[in-house]
Amino acid sequence: MSEDVLITPKQYDIIANIQQQTLEKLVANDPVADILNSLCLLAESILPNAVASIMMVDASDGLLSVMCAPSIPTVGHEALANLQPGPGGGSCGNAVFHNEAQYVQNTFEDERWKNLRQVAVDFNICACWSMPIKNEHKQAIGSFALSSFEHRTPVLFHKKLLETCSTIVSIVLKRERREQRLLLLSTALNNASEGVIITDKNNHIVEVNPAFEKIYGFCESDVLGKNPKILSSGVQGDSFYRQLWYELMIKDQWRGEITNKHQNGELVSQWMSITVIRDKHGEIQNYLSIFSDLTELKSAQQQVIDMAFYDPVTQLHNKTYLEQEILANEQNYTLIVLNINNFGYINTAYGFNIGDKILTAIANTLANNFSMDETFRLNSDEFGLLFAGEIAIAEQIKIIQQYFYHTLIRVDDISLHIAFTYGAAQGKKHLLRNCALALKQAKSLGKNRYHIFDADNELVDNSTRESFIASNNLLHSALELDQLTPYFQGIYDNKTKKIQKFEVLARIIKGDEVISPHSFLDTAKLSGLLPEITRVILDKSFKIMSDFDYTFSLNITEDDLSQNYLLAYLAEKTAQYNIQPQRIILEILEGVSATGKKNHIKQLTELKARGYLLAIDDFGTEYSNFERILELDIDYLKIDAKYIKNIDINEKSYEITRAITFFAHNVNIPCIAEFVHNESVQAVVNTLGIDYSQGYYFSEPAPLPIITQRQTS
Predict the structure, then answer these.
(1) pLDDT value of residue 2
(2) Residues 447, 366 within the same domain
(3) Do 148 and 201 share a domain, yes or no?
(4) CA of 441: how far to CAs of 187, 340, 447, 453, in Å?
(5) How large a percentage of the chain has pLDDT more than 70?
(6) What is the reported pTM?
């Protein structure tokens, strides 16, 4: 005999009765909580001495909690809250975890209840049968359970009861989600700022939303059953609508800008999207139109354009319009910039209100009396006259000068003679920049003057400016991409015939290119980036030198001293890389020591006290303060390269170097000769008794402090 016959007709009637009662409540739109409570109580009435419960998974954390259990006290709900589905999570935790029914006859011993054993004991739950509640994708989202206060094993009827109740819960929750979704869609539709029109397959209006009424001024009753043609403005012709319907039939969608008509006859600009809605057989059921009112947006866009491209005082196009809309075409133009002489005094004397009226009068005069293509207001007291092609600039400026010399500008009861200073340029590129340069030149000559930009004579300054910009970009890029790196040049000891010191030099490594500081140090100083370079080079050189025992020198600038960070930064890095301060020579320019700024001297004195060595770099380039050198207890003097490089053939260089060496020896300060580049120069250096030599003759800068054969010879 099959197991199915174990369910009697009476038992099937009981299950059918539960289904009927629950579905009646569902059709009557009873609250979901009431429906589920009723279901649990019906299930409990069939299995005496048991309680029913519905637990659901929280989608955010995957934990189970009681959703409905009318016969279980609140303390029981709390005990079962945030249950982790899994092998030891009780009947419900296992039902969800395995996505299949769980029938536990003895909760006090079954391993499936090992994590909830205390709950079973506290509430005397002896047996528990649980069926997973599944969604439309057959995934477990909760459980329906019957918990018994006696040890029991379910028969087929009980299993069918659990399955039925689980399915009913799934149906109830699915309907609730659908109703919530419909409510959300309905709320969104009714509160949307976009208008909505739904038509039937014959294109008759069957639904509109409140935004439609607001945009068009029609009530729902005015348009239902009518063709949307009632909104047509006539702005678009038949060809527009033929194309619209063609695209709609081919693609099931059309998007575009359209102009319709308000109930009061005003035009309404819109961005509209029309979608074809088809049934499961592919037949057209409805058309859905969603549209946004662009009227205010277009007005706002025009206001933005006006603000961006028009001067609010004179209503002339402004500098932005000239630059972006006209000169960007790179056609051949002539531009004359007119700067009003003494306009600041006019504003001060008459006030800004009168000043604006004077500007407007000047603008009208310029726009209406000279044969230019357009007049622009460029700045507070500057106008621009644009001519197509090339013109005789000097003659045109004289015409303007003569006109304003003989014509008064009249505002209210005020009459003024207005005069300008002029800058002009011709060509296809950089007209505004070139005019600004020309105007600057004209102002340097005095008022009422003009200057015409001459590319041959003035591009040198532009080239310098562009070079600075390129160098600045190179430097910022190098810092950002970590391309700054230290190079090391050996310092040769003329007594021991060895190199035991190195100077650290900054380089930029860009691909295979090694860029020397001559390309970026001046720019770094102007840009205020010298301290940043010092920090990078100092950190990287310390890291490299931590693997060597050499003494090494680093260049310190006045900018570094001004920022007052050296004491702390050097202390941090010497500790980080375990380098003794006595190995470090800080090279400072002669000007820093000679100037003797109080804070700088204080820092240098403190650095010296902490064990760092000090060297004066490029000694002899300025008027040296010998007393200051002695006060600082300088450890080395580096003789400027300009005296060393030709010392073997230049008597003046020789005598200056000899004097410096004599002074240094008398005060026991070792000297270092820079730019020793050949044997002849080195011979003179040896003759003068200079202690150290630095230059390509002994050592070329390299990424590591390497000693070559010549350096040790």
Answers:
(1) 42
(2) yes
(3) no
(4) 68, 15, 11, 9
(5) 92
(6) 0.42
Asked if 475 and 515 touch (Cβ cutoff 8 Å), the reply is no
User: What average pLDDT does range 183-190 have in this prediction?
Assistant: 69
If you average pLDDT over residues 411-432, what whole number do you get?
A: 91
Same domain, 275 and 331: no
Angstrom CA distances, 528 to 393, 500, 532, 675, stand at 42, 33, 8, 28
Pairing verdict, β 140-148 and 636-639: unpaired
pLDDT tens-digit map of 51-91: 999 999 998 899 999 999 999 999 999 999 999 999 999 99
Mark which of 298, 327, 356 sits at the end of a domain.
298
303 within domain boundaries: no
**Within this chain, do residues 425 and 492 fall inside the same structural domain, yes or no?**
no
CATH value at residue 271: 3.30.450.20
Tokens of 272: 């509209």
Residue-range definition of the domain harbouring residue 416: 310-453
Euclidean distance between CA atoms 667 and 616, whole angstroms: 14
Burial call 378-401: b when 16+ CB within 10 Å, e when fewer: beebbbbbbbeeebebeebbeebe
Per-residue pLDDT tens over the stretch 456-513: 766 545 556 667 778 888 888 999 999 999 999 999 999 999 999 999 999 999 988 9
Average pLDDT rounded to a whole number, residues 39-48: 93
CA distance 421 to 275: 63
Number of domains in the chain: 4
Q: How far is CA 240 from CA 231, 233, 462, in A?
A: 15, 13, 54
**Residues 349 and 274 placed together within one structural domain of the fold:** no
Nearest C-alpha neighbor of 555 from the set 538, 536, 580, 532: 538
The DSSP-derived string for 137-203 is TS-EEEEEEEEESS-----HHHHHHHHHHHHHHHHHHHHHHHHHHHHHHHHHHHH-SSEEEEEETT-
Close Cβ partners of 428 (under 8 Å, ≥ 6 residues apart): 330, 331, 332, 333
Does residue 293 share a domain with residue 315? no
For residue 416, what is the domain's CATH number? 3.30.70.270
The single-letter code of the amino acid at 6 is: L
How many helices (H) does the chain have, and how many strands (E)?
27, 27
556 shares a domain with 697 = yes
Residue tagged 């933005």 (tokens) = 304
